[in-house]
Amino acid sequence: MALIDDDVLTTEGLAPSHQGRVLLIACGALAHEVLALKRANQWQHLDLQCLPANLHLYPDRITEAVAKAVAAHRAEYDSIFVLYADCGTGGQLLEKCKELGVEMIEGPHCYSFFEGNAAFAAHPDEFTAFYLTDFLVRQFDAFVWRPMGLDRHPQLRDMYFGNYTKLVYQAQTNDTALDAKAEDCARRLGLAYERRFTGYGDLAVVMAQAAG
Amino acid sequence: MAEDEIILADLSDDELVLQMHDDLYDGLKEEIEDGVNILIERGWAPYDVLTKALVAGMTIVGADFRDGILFVPEVLLAANAMKGGMFILKPLLIATGAPRMGKMVIGTVKGDIHDIGKNLVGMMMEGAGFEVRDLGINNSVEKYLEALEQEKPDILGMSALLTTTMPYMKVVIDTMKEKGMREDYIVLVGGAPLNEEFGKAIGADAYCRDAAVAVETAKALVLRKHNQLNA
User: Of A197, A172, A134, A177, which is closest to residue A6 (Cα–Cα)?
Assistant: First the structure.
């Protein structure tokens, strides 16, 4: 299977293949992980549509984008599952999903469900950590460095990150090149580095539920 | 020196103020500091420098941010430039007894370290004539209450960036109610995941979506409070 381009997932997302009874509407940042789980479990009846991952730069637009996607594809599938957590929508996405009668992932954000919501909630003192996932490490420049203007104005770094103490790379896969890149991201942000292998966490559990 | 370089000291007052608006927009801190010093040397009242040069310039920045013309990095650069100007003006404003609109205690809630929005609000409130006590980040209900006792402000401002931390605002407001002190203060809340509905649900007086709205809301509510007290 051809590798999906991360830049495309960031800015355009991924169209559904229109094959399968259950549609997963996911953030583009989860595409690789969702497809890996689908392959590993042979969930042929799951189809995937990804919305552009860079919606996270404007969380207030996520709810509407998800609602539109649900409305556009509802008639084609037996059921739809939303693979977003709250993701900075302040509870609005959950309300909308309830209204639309579709399920979504529990938890505040992907950092939480990749680690496992219960495990993540067990360290509330870690609020000075800045998290990256596999996707975000690969897309660090497109997602963090450039949108924050750090390529043009490096002096802003401490205004953004001065209160953080460490970067935690939540690794979904074991990839030494990504590990090295994540460590470099920490260096660029002036933060200590920690790698934490999470695998797919609650995403695997939720997808198994969606698969039925 | 480039031929087209502008010499701030050669500009008339009106030209200089407009140039300072441009320089704020472009986030040029040194130019703003120079402009402030020039206007003060020309005999301008510090309050006029603040309102006509800095606050008016930041208002343009704020409007263009709201309209999607400017983005966060540019706003931060502008804020940094304004901070440079404010640093010069602050002692002069105190010395000259500039008009005071009221007092605000502001801080980011417990478990949250994000302070960009809060800092912007604090600065714009100072620009609007409010005295601001900034509690910084990660504030427990005890810290908020202690500051309210000490400072006796008109306004409490709370900020949160995370969905997980914003409910803490309700903890603070509920504690204020329990202690019978809620009605003594105007409570304003803000932060990216918040909205008006949330502000109402937790019992705040208002949700402020950005620094400009915070200033306008604060002015209006302080005025209303003073009118009620004088009625």
Answer: A134
